[in-house]
Design brief:
Elements: H1 7-16, E1 21-25, H2 33-43, E2 49-53, E3 71-72, H3 77-103
Parallel strand pairs: 1-2, 2-3
Length: 105
């Protein structure tokens, strides 16, 4: 597990390495920094699983079209771990499907 101290550092890390999962805080150094990190991660060719971690329950700063299923609240650790496992599993399934399509299976 690696962490970044800023959105700029996180974007740099995404460019240098491949990650299975990218979790970003919703409110980092600015209200939209977390969204920028997630948007950049979703543009990467290796397609990491992505989610925003937020303790805010009123969805402040979250775009209306943002899937609420990609918001994780860190209050319940067991639920957090379950959601992270689900994100990684779903990513693995999508990746396998892409590889099968490319292989013509």
């Amino acid at each position: 597990m690696e962490s970044a101290a800023s959105a700029a550092e996180a974007v740099g890390m995404l460019e240098e390495s491949e990650y299975a999962l990218v979790l970003s805080g919703l409110q980092m150094e600015s209200p939209d920094s977390g969204l920028k990190v997630i948007a950049h991660a979703r543009m990467m060719d290796y397609k990491p699983a992505t989610a925003l971690v937020t303790a805010y329950h009123d969805d402040i700063g979250i775009p209306e079209n943002w899937p609420k299923s990609l918001l994780i609240s860190p209050e319940d650790v067991q639920d957090l771990l379950t959601q992270v496992a689900s994100l990684i599993s779903n990513r693995a399934t999508r990746r396998l499907r892409r590889e099968m399509v490319l292989a013509g299976v």
